[in-house]
Amino acid sequence: QVRLVESGGGLVQAGGSLRLSCAASGRTGYTYTWGWFRQAPGKEREFVAFMRNGGTTTYSDSVKGRFTNSEDNAENTVYLQMNSLKPEDTAVYYCAFDPAFVVNAGIPRNYDYWGQGTQVTVSS
Asked: Rounded CA gap, 35 and 107, in Å?
């Protein structure tokens, strides 16, 4: 059983930065997909970024060039560095993990394990 624990959310002014962390325990194997999603009030959960088997990260158009995903394999942790934050980035952010190569990795239901979510609020 994989357990994901997130940290790093908070309140920041527009233009500021935050870094989210997602630590996994119970992971095994070398095939996997990490995902980041977010959900604003009254909206569906949306794709932010995903990475398969430590390869290149794919980002949504709304965050490309501002957010950077990285992985510390030794610590079983992924990070989402968020720069140039905008008020429209305000949401609860979730990390997700699946012990497989997820083909449609931008779809939330394709992941087996989820973090508890962390609130990111960007003030204007």
From this structure: 9
Q: pLDDT tens-digit profile of 48-95?
A: 999 999 899 999 999 999 999 999 988 999 999 999 999 999 999 999
- C-alpha span between 20 and 36 (Å, rounded): 10
Those residues with Cβ within 8 angstroms of residue 119's Cβ, 6 or more apart along the chain or in another chain? 9, 10, 91, 92, 93
| Separation of alpha carbons 88 and 70, rounded Å | 23
Q: Kindly report, residue by residue over 24-34, the tens digit of the pLDDT.
A: 998 877 899 99
Q: Residue 66 and residue 78: Cα distance in Å, rounded?
A: 17
96 touches 36 (CB < 8 A): yes
